[in-house]
Design a protein that fits this description.
Blueprint: H1 16-19, E1 42-43, H2 50-60, H3 63-70, H4 74-77, H5 92-106, E2 111-112, H6 115-120, H7 134-148, H8 157-162, E3 164-172, E4 178-185, E5 188-191, H9 198-206, E6 210-212, E7 218-220, E8 225-227, E9 229-237, E10 241-247, E11 249-252, E12 257-260, E13 270-272, E14 288-300, E15 303-311, H10 330-343, H11 352-361, E16 367-369, H12 370-381, H13 385-388, H14 390-393, H15 396-402, E17 407-410, E18 415-418, H16 428-437, E19 451-455, E20 458-462, E21 475-484, H17 503-527, E22 529-536, E23 540-543, E24 546-549, E25 557-563, H18 568-578, E26 587-594, E27 597-604, E28 620-625, E29 629-630, E30 633-634, E31 643-652, H19 658-661, E32 671-680, H20 685-692, E33 699-703, H21 708-714, E34 720-725, E35 745-749, E36 759-762, E37 765-769, E38 776-781, E39 804-809, H22 815-819, E40 828-833, E41 839-842, E42 859-864, E43 872-879, E44 889-894, H23 899-905, E45 913-918, E46 924-927, E47 945-950, E48 958-967, E49 976-981, E50 986-991, E51 1002-1012, H24 1017-1024, E52 1042-1047, E53 1050-1054, H25 1062-1065, E54 1073-1080, E55 1092-1097, ...
Parallel strand pairs: 1-2, 5-10, 22-28, 31-35, 38-42, 43-47, 54-58
Antiparallel strand pairs: 3-4, 3-9, 6-9, 7-8, 10-21, 11-12, 13-14, 14-15, 14-21, 15-19, 16-18, 17-18, 19-20, 22-25, 23-24, 26-27, 26-28, 29-30, 31-32, 33-34, 33-35, 34-37, 36-37, 38-39, 40-41, 40-42, 43-44, 45-46, 45-47, 48-49, 48-51, 49-50, 50-52, 52-53, 54-55, 56-57, 56-58
Helix pairs in contact: 5-17, 10-16, 11-12
Biased composition (Basic and acidic residues): 334-348
Biased composition (Gly residues): 784-798
GO cellular component, one term: cytosol
């Protein structure tokens, strides 16, 4: 009835598909996980088959159905191996159902697959992602089974178990004649709307009478006239199993939309149907039923998920009381928490590896669903991953991938488990504690009354009281299954999954169990092998507090593969066997490679501990030594002695090679020499000074990264750096106490160095100014043109037109002082060049290199002309056209000049011209209306371009709107004028036809309208109608007119709000109510239904998902089934709109949602949006034959734009698409 409206709801948490990239083992090689604590098997979801899984589990836990199916042997059904043989009659559906039930009962796996069963239905891979109504499936599946079992002994077992009979009676009130009609039923469909319980619905169906009276009379066959009559229905034959379908989904004819009944609707756990039956003289057991299964639907009428509550009649599962902390007494919960604290080991809450390992190891299945890992972590430590660990360790998914030696993904990437299946740290001890705590246990259900929640692959225990929670809400009961109380199970069937299972299926299950167990053992052994790197003491020496290889060209390590389930003693013995010449004791110490070298941490001393318990994982480095010394020197181990690699800078004398010292200038000036040195983190600064061989009175300085002094020093000539002198008290502190880390720089100075011009001391800050080969500016000039002068190497003998370049050190206060000794140029200025080679504004010579915006290591061009002063602006201007069409001229004006003064300084002195600015894309922008404002008040800066445009500005407070007429080739009788704002060069379109699209338009200028900014849109429309060119157009009132902007030759935003003034509504502003032309694709064809105009409110959420949801609600479809695209008529292409969004960015905050109002779509009024329903149309290509013809014309005429429209004729409503039907293909066995 509802097609595919029950689509699966997807999780947006940690995606398993994204985490598959970090897996080292292929999914095909992973064994299926074993059954959980319930000892029941779930069913895998193929993407949208939760409705099928719920119904199959219900049938499996109906023993009478299961045993009737198993009673059919190969002699009646055939063999699956013969199904491809010609002429063989193999009843595939019941055979596959037998195999599936046998796997669910006997194979030790967490979940079974229904792929073979659905393949026997004739479903393809896409059918597994389309979900349907479970009531519809129930009827179709039973019908398919009945057709498949024709001619067998089981051909009538579904009829016997599930089919009942209803008798409908009509009694004539005049003569008493009774007319009866019997009908067969598989399930009873009961009403939910307006009722509160199942009993009330059954009472209305089978007790209440419907009267035919008034205008609704009944024609009696005996009276042969219209008479008053009463109609009623009764249950004539009761089946052993009664199925009730609740009409949760209804249709609101007033709102024309589907909705789900979520009100309270109760149903009993046992019910007596005697009041609703025709024959009531039998025993009570003939009419009494008890609840055995409840299929639950979670979600709304457009999407959701199915799962099922089932009573374990044959006691095949291990039922455990579910945890209900809220229902326990306070004292009991407190005692439970105390016992839990005693049983659990002390967690290192600052170590994410330790926390996650503890969370997973304490799970019964030794694995956790990926989307539940974050919640369990919060329950463990009280903080989420984002607040506790994300800043330091990144997202939890990346953390799991970076520790592949500890964690692995199983169940096709949906669960995370430990690579070693260690026992839970709270195993037997906690169970004993629980036994002591439950001094007053809750009464457990009787045997055969245990309930389980089977939710696809997950099976959990529930209480019978949990079913009452499904009486109402979005997660509520949808189908009820009752069984007669007189149906009793034999004793040998209880707790016996093999009961009445055919022997050949038992053998197949045993073989599969053996294969799975072997696969698990191999997989377990593979995933517990770690790769270790052994560093032998004979290959290392101690230097600068760290271990360095004896030979730099040798790594000094040996790789070893080892099972981490073995002990440290086993590892030591294996290394002894590898090193036959080893003498004496052997110590194994965990080590790490640091920038300063190799450093030792903890030594493995307990030989009885496994490598896993010792924290050894893949790529762990182990140092093999005697535990005391290396090459006769004592080695300090531990985190407090971690070596630090520092950059030591020292003064060098004149004459050293710049490449060798790294700090001397080309002419042999003073500089700094840099050297990387490693020191133990536990040594003091005094010991560092001694290790460097410096005098006692020498100074140690640390690079000063902040402060006012450093900023002042850094600005001197662009090559200065600041250093802070360590006070005497810090000289006795260790490097760790001073928080020095790898890469930090230390400056070593002798007191006499402060007399040099390179080093300047101000309090505890020393400023170092070193001329460096990276502190230069390059100047390009022509020597013969007067640009050459002094020390820059004028080049009088150079060839005539050859340009020269010279490097000038950046060490001056101002630009003019900076180049005074190099270029003696009065009528020349320096200009920078951008990446395209264009000359920028001249550099102000009164400013410093930094304040003038000149970057180091850039090139300046020496050009003729004067440079502006600090109080002046250098501007470009052009007359009457854009820069690409005209010649740019330059002008230098004061910042205090007004717009009128600037205009008079140009070549135009007439009042019929005005100035405009160029916008960021070098198009003519807004006019400078107030000519009495200064350039500084208008925030005009050097380098901007002004356009001198012909035309007198309108009076202050008025707009001049040139009006244009829109011409549509096939609708010439509908006139469309258009206007353009003189303020923003924006054109407005006047429409008289609501079917205008967003394609390229043909325009004809029909005049101008001058109107006040305080006028309303209604006034603008009235004044437009007075234009002479529109006198022949028949427009009854302004209500038949639509005004739109024109942007780049395309119809843009529609102006709304009839009584809003033009100034307040800002006709060039942004609009959040968009009029879109929507086209729904015709399934299987390259064409579209007639277009519809829809108004989309994008003010709150302009994202693609919002538009998709809006269109889905309009068409009555699911948003996930729609594919959208925007049409670009000028290119004849469709641009697909993706509704996927990345949730989390790298900066620990939500990424801003993509807006369709911005790049790359820029959706505006009139844009054409294409819609495809992927449920019935698998073609994702939006291109039509007209688009291909247009693209062909564009290829032939490259520079000519095509103005052909793509609007369809008419605006008739699109017919509703056909819904996807559910079907099962059955062979012919008659």
């Amino acid at each position: 009835m509802f097609g595919n409206l029950f689509e699966e709801e997807e999780d947006e948490d940690f995606s398993s598909s994204s985490s598959l990239k970090g897996r080292t083992t292929k999914a095909a090689e992973e064994p299926p996980p074993p059954r959980g604590r319930s000892n029941l098997c779930g069913i895998k979801n193929q993407g949208g088959t939760c409705y099928l899984n719920s119904l199959l589990q219900t049938l499996l836990f109906t023993p009478e159905f299961r045993e009737e199916l198993f009673s059919l042997g190969p002699e009646e059904l055939g063999c699956l191996e013969d199904k491809d043989k010609p002429g063989a009659k193999v009843r595939v559906i019941p055979l596959e159902l037998q195999r599936l039930f046998a796997r669910l009962l006997l194979v030790d796996q967490q979940s079974a697959s229904t792929a073979d069963l659905t393949h026997s239905f004739g479903w393809n891979s896409s059918e597994g992602t389309n979900q349907h109504d479970v009531q519809e499936l129930n009827r179709i599946l039973f019908s398919a089974l009945e057709h498949s079992l024709v001619g067998t002994t089981g051909s009538a077992f579904i009829q016997q178990l599930y089919h009942g009979t209803i008798v409908n009676s009509i009694v004539c009130k005049e003569c008493g004649n009774v007319s009866q009609r019997q009908e067969d039923f598989l399930d009873l469909t009961v009403c939910v709307c307006g009722l509160s319980s199942l009993e009330e619905a059954l009472w209305n169906m089978f007790v209440e009478e419907e009267l035919f009276e008034g205008n609704n009379l009944y024609r009696c066959a005996q009276c042969d006239t219209l008479v008053t009559a009463a109609k009623s229905a009764k249950l004539k034959k009761l089946p052993p199993f009664m199925t009730m379908s609740l009409l949760r989904f209804s249709f609101d004819f007033a709102k024309c939309e589907r909705y789900k009944e979520t009100g309270r609707y109760s149903f009993p756990f046992s019910i007596n149907l005697r009041p609703f039956c025709e024959q009531t003289d039998g025993e009570d057991s003939d009419y009494c039923y008890e609840l055995s299964s409840v299929i639950i639907h979670k979600g709304g009428c457009y999407g959701g998920h199915y799962h099922v509550y089932i009573r374990d009649i044959d006691q095949m599962g291990n039922w455990e009381p579910p945890e209900e902390e809220d229902c326990k007494p306070r004292s009991q919960k407190k005692a439970k928490d105390e016992a839990k604290d005693l049983s659990e080991p002390k967690l290192q809450e600052d170590d994410p590896l330790s926390v996650l390992t503890a969370v997973i190891s304490q799970e019964p299945t030794k694995s956790v669903l990926l989307d539940q890992l974050g919640q369990k972590l919060m329950e463990k430590i009280g903080l989420s991953w984002s607040k506790k660990f994300r800043k330091e360790h990144g997202p939890i998914g990346k953390f799991l991938q970076s520790h592949k030696e500890v964690f692995m993904l199983v169940s096709n990437g949906t669960r995370v488990a430990l690579r070693a299946n260690l026992p839970s740290p709270v195993s037997s001890q906690q169970r004993g504690t629980d036994h002591r705590l439950n001094t007053e246990p809750e009464p457990e259900p009787e045997q055969g009354s245990h309930w389980f929640d089977l939710n696809d692959s997950t099976v959990t225990s529930i209480r019978q009281s949990d079913i009452e929670k499904q009486f109402q809400g979005k997660e509520s009961a949808y189908m009820l299954f009752y069984r007669k109380t007189q149906l009793h199970r034999p004793t040998e069937a209880l707790k016996n999954p093999q009961y009445k299972v055919p022997s050949h299926l038992v053998q197949v299950a045993q073989e599969e169990n053996a294969r799975v167990q072997e696969l698990r053992e191999k997989f377990d052994a593979t995933n517990n092998t770690v790769e270790l790197r052994l560093h032998l003491v004979t290959s290392y020496r101690l230097e600068n507090g760290a271990l360095q290889p004896t030979h730099k060209d040798q790594s000094g390590n040996t790789n070893l593969s080892f099972d981490r389930r073995k002990t440290v003693g086993d590892l030591r013995l294996a290394i002894y066997q590898m090193q036959e010449l080893w003498e004496g004791d052997m110590a194994l110490t965990v080590t790490r490679s640091l920038p300063a070298g190799l450093h030792l941490y903890n030594t493995l001393t307990d030989d009885s501990v496994s490598l896993y318990s010792a924290g050894i994982h893949t790529n762990t480095d182990l140092f093999v030594w005697n535990g005391r010394e290396v090459c006769g020197e004592t080695v300090l181990s531990g985190a407090e002695w971690e070596p630090v690699l520092l950059t030591v800078e020292q003064e060098v004398v004149n004459g050293l090679d710049c490449r060798e010292t790294g700090g001397a200038f080309e002419n042999g000036g003073p500089g700094l020499k840099k050297e990387a040195r490693g020191f133990s983190g536990g040594v003091t600064l005094e010991e560092v000074k001694e290790a460097l061989g410096e005098a006692k009175d020498s100074l140690l300085c640390q690079e000063h990264k902040g402060g006012k002094r450093a900023e002042q020093g850094a600005g001197e000539g662009g090559g200065a750096s600041g250093w802070r002198v360590f006070p005497p008290a810090d000289m006795q502190r260790t490097l760790k106490e001073l928080s020095l880390k790898d890469g930090d720089a230390l400056l070593v100075l002798e007191p006499r160095s402060l007399d040099s011009s390179v080093f300047t001391r101000d309090g505890d800050v020393i400023t170092v100014t070193t001329p460096s080969d990276c502190r230069w500016l390059q100047v390009e000039f022509q020597p013969h043109g007067g640009g050459g002068g002094g020390g820059g190497g004028g080049g009088e003998g150079d060839p005539g037109n050859e340009r020269r370049r010279v490097k000038v050190p950046a060490a001056g206060n101002t630009v003019s002082h900076h180049f005074m000794d190099y270029f003696c140029c009065v009528e020349y200025c320096l200009r920078q060049v951008d990446c395209t080679g264009k000359l920028l504004s001249p550099v102000c010579e009164e400013l410093s290199v930094r304040d003038a915006g000149v970057r180091l290591m850039t090139t300046l061009i020496l050009c003729p002309g004067n440079a502006p002063r600090s109080s002046q602006l250098f501007l470009h201007f052009i007359v009457g056209a854009a820069p690409s069409a005209g010649v740019e001229l330059d002008i230098i004006v004061e910042k205090s000049c007004t717009v009128r003064e600037v205009k008079n300084k140009t070549i135009i002195h007439s009042s019929c011209w005005h100035l405009r600015k160029l916008d960021w894309c070098e198009e003519v922008g807004e006019p400078l209306v107030d000519e009495d404002m200064s350039l500084s008040e208008l925030k005009i800066i050097s380098g901007e371009t002004l356009v001198v445009t012909e035309g007198k500005l309108p009076p202050k407070g008025f707009l001049t709107l040139p009006t244009w007429l829109f011409l549509e080739p096939h609708m010439m009788e509908t006139e469309r004028p258009q206007a353009d704002s003189g303020h923003a060069e924006e054109r407005l379109q006047v429409l008289t036809d609501p079917q205008c699209g967003g394609n390229m338009v043909q325009l004809r200028n029909i005049g101008q309208v001058e109107i006040s900014e305080e006028a309303t849109l209604e006034n603008l429309k009235t004044q437009v109608l007075t234009l002479p060119a529109l006198q022949s157009v028949c427009i009854p009132t302004t209500a038949f007119m639509r005004i739109r902007q024109l942007e780049g030759g395309r119809l843009g935003q529609i102006l709304r709000g009839q009584q809003q003034t033009l100034r307040k509504r800002k006709i060039w502003g942004e609009c959040y109510e968009l009029l879109l032309t929507v086209k729904m694709g015709v399934p299987g064809e390259r064409s579209y239904y007639p277009p519809e105009e829809l108004v989309w409110v994008a003010s709150h959420d302009p994202s693609p998902r919002s538009l998709c949801t809006f269109l889905a609600a309009h068409y009555g479809l699911s948003p996930d089934s729609l594919l959208l695209a925007k049409h670009q008529p000028e290119k004849h292409v469709w641009e697909e709109i993706s509704t996927w969004n990345q949730q989390i960015s790298k900066k620990k905050k939500k990424k801003k949602t993509e807006s369709l109002l911005g790049a790359p779509f820029h959706i505006k009024d009139g844009d054409i949006i294409g819609v495809k329903n992927l449920l019935i149309d698998k073609n994702r290509d939006f291109t039509t034959q007209e688009d291909e013809q247009g693209q062909l014309r564009l290829r032939e005429l490259v520079e000519q734009e095509n103005a052909a429209g793509c609007n369809g004729a008419g605006s008739q409503k699109k017919s509703r698409k056909p819904e996807v039907a559910l079907s099962i293909n059955v062979g012919v066995f008659r």
